[in-house]
């Protein structure tokens, strides 16, 4: 604890964002470059080094947060990097993309603003790359065992890196043309520039991990054939089966899933396309769904030059403070949060009819109507109460040339045939069934991440990848020294 009074003398200060008018003209990350390091040591000093650090419990990775806060406060960046990477393979991802349940569990958050744990984590990760603290760590010897990892999102990459470093020969199979899963084509560039992803992939290549892109297991390679070629298989395909909106007019042109829209914008940033065929430029856009994916669509549509953008959230607008009765500390509370995209929409007034920023809360879609050519032109909605029942007399109509459905995901996509070909058992909600050791009903086949857990956070995805790697290592060798931060049955803290 570098400064025992730091939490009393230093106010919370977050990584400043670039001015809205500037950042919406490009696809660079929203934060001011270089503005984090000058403030982060003092922010780390706010850590109380409390006797029971609930931030550990709130984070499924078990990050050693008080330890690396103290090291950053003392500006011992190498040791801080060692502590951080001891529990997290990809802190530069979580430091940008995780909603930071650790901060909700910070003891200081009981009656003060929490420590900026997420910013400290990101600063350590970035400094580690700048100073060369993260060299490749190839294994000293090979085990002679082979593992196929299907899916290259955070779960698949974490599992592959852990197993490679344990000495196994690992190949990652990805159906898209580039590695990264939703981090590649689902997360916009302004939230995480893909250079961070490329850097980790090159590190993994140098350690010995092999990558097979444009290969859908079950379609391009029969699943049984793949299983016969490897000693173990890890399924980490994510939960990509999107939820639908079965209302009248859904078949009209111009209504698309968020994950049909976002990848095209990312491909423009990658240089594959000059412009997205689903570009929001000049269109009235309505996003159905109030989560992070909807916010990603919002920020993307603003940068593409939409005429207006409105986001519908079926839930009522949350309050600014934690409801101590419904969601007591240290659970992750539902409070009003202003993401970078919502800040942009509020300042640019993209949706003049919205309740706050670009969002209409407690709003449910009734139907769509279109023109004589079958193109969507309007979205009809109604306000709902806490039971999601329509409130009489609250119907409204919004202009809509492009509608994006961001309603979440129900489980793994089964169209490729992977699940059927391996004969995998499923849970009633559509996720892959597994036992307490991450093993499916197919011998030698393991499942991890959203494909088995269901839609979750990136920090849980990485924890799943690390844990399944330990399970596979034990299966192959009879024992394992790899860390297993969570069990398949573990869930976030709730009341």
TrEMBL record:
Keyword Chaperone recorded: no
Q: In which pathway does it act?
A: Amino-acid biosynthesis
**Alphabetical list of InterPro entries matching this protein:** 4Fe4S_Fe-S-bd, DPD_II, FAD/NAD-bd_sf, FAD/NAD-binding_dom, Glut_synth_ssu1, Glutamate_Synthase, Helical_ferredxn
Q: Which Pfam families match?
A: Fer4_20, Pyr_redox_2
Q: Which UniProt keywords apply?
A: Amino-acid biosynthesis, Glutamate biosynthesis, Oxidoreductase
Q: Which SUPFAM superfamilies match?
A: alpha-helical ferredoxin, Nucleotide-binding domain
Q: Which residue range or ranges hold the 4Fe-4S ferredoxin-type domain?
A: 38-69
| NCBIfam families xref list | GOGAT_sm_gam (TIGR01317)
What is the protein name stated in its UniProt record?
A: Oxidoreductase
Organism, by scientific name, is Streptomyces canarius
């Amino acid at each position: 604890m570098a400064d025992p009074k730091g939490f009393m003398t230093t106010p919370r200060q977050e990584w400043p964002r670039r001015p809205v008018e500037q950042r919406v003209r490009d696809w660079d990350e929203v934060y001011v470059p270089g503005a984090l390091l000058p403030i982060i040591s003092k922010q780390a000093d706010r850590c109380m080094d409390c006797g029971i650090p609930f931030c550990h419990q709130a984070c499924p990775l078990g990050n050693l947060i008080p330890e690396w806060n103290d090291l950053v406060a003392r500006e011992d960046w190498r040791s801080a990097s060692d502590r951080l990477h001891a529990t997290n393979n990809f802190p530069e991802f979580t430091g940008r993309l995780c909603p930071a349940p650790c901060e909700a569990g910070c003891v200081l958050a009981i009656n003060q603003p929490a420590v900026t744990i997420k910013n400290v984590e990101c600063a350590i990760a970035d400094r580690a790359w700048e100073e060369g603290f993260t060299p490749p760590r190839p294994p000293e010897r090979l085990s002679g065992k082979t593992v196929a990892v299907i899916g290259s999102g955070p779960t698949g990459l974490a599992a592959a890196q852990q197993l490679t470093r344990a000495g196994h020969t690992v190949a990652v199979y990805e159906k898209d043309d580039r590695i990264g899963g939703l981090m590649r084509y689902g997360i916009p560039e302004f939230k995480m520039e893909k250079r961070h992803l490329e850097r980790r992939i090159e590190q993994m290549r140098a350690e010995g991990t092999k990558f097979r892109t444009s290969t859908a297991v079950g379609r391009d390679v029969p699943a049984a054939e793949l299983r016969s070629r490897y000693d173990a298989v890890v399924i980490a395909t994510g939960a990509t089966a999107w939820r639908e909106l079965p209302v009248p007019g859904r078949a009209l042109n111009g209504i698309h899933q968020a994950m049909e829209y976002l990848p095209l914008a990312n491909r423009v940033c990658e240089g594959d396309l000059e412009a997205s065929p689903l570009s929001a430029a000049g269109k009235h856009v309505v996003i159905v769904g109030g989560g992070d994916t909807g916010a990603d669509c919002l920020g993307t549509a603003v940068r593409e030059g939409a005429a207006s953008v409105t986001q519908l959230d079926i839930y009522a607008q949350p309050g600014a403070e934690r409801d101590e009765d419904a969601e007591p500390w240290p659970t992750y509370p539902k409070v009003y949060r202003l993401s970078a995209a919502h800040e942009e929409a509020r300042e640019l007034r993209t949706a003049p009819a919205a309740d706050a920023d670009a969002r209409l809360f407690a709003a449910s879609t009734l139907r769509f109507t279109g023109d004589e050519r079958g193109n969507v032109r309007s979205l009809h909605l109604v306000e709902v109460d806490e039971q999601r029942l329509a409130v009489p007399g609250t119907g409204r109509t919004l202009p809509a040339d492009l509608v994006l459905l961001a309603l979440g995901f129900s489980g793994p996509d089964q169209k490729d045939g992977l699940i059927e070909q391996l004969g995998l058992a499923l849970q009633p909600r559509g996720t892959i069934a597994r036992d307490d050791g991450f093993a499916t009903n197919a011998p030698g086949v393991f499942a991890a991440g959203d494909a088995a857990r269901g839609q979750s956070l990136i920090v849980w995805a990485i924890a799943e990848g690390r844990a399944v790697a330990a399970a596979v290592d034990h299966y192959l060798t009879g024992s394992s020294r790899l860390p297993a931060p969570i069990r398949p049955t573990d869930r976030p803290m709730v009341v």
